[in-house]
Amino acid sequence: MSQIKSQILSRIEKHTESKSIQLDFDFLLALQKEQAPELRQDLVEICVIESFVKLYEDKTLDYLLYEYMDSKLTHSIERTAA
């Protein structure tokens, strides 16, 4: 797991009373995928994280999400260029 994703999960954990943030996050991903099966996995992740940003109005989490999306885009561009 990337460092940014770990920071995101840690930040989400501050808002929840989770005993296992990774299990809860995976569950939320599965629920989101059920609601929008046409979305790619990376977009499902972003939707779940963005819901926490909006729910808790967490600007730090919003910035971490932006960094996470940027790193995903950069990785995708590098892979495409190779």
Brief characterization of the structure:
This protein has helices spanning 3-15, 21-35, 41-56, 59-81.
Topology:
Layout: H1 3-15, H2 21-35, H3 41-56, H4 59-81
Outline the structure in words.
This protein is mainly alpha-helical and 82 residues long. The protein has 4 helices and no strands. The chain has helices spanning 3-15, 21-35, 41-56, 59-81. α2 (21-35) crosses α3. The protein is globular and about 40 Å long. The two termini are 23 Å apart.
- Write the element-wise H/E pattern from the N-terminal end onward: HHHH
Task: Please give the radius of gyration in angstroms.
Answer: 13 Å
**What helical percentage do the residues reach?**
over 70%
Major sheet attributes: none
Q: Key features?
A:
82 residues, mainly alpha, 4 helices, 82% helix, globular
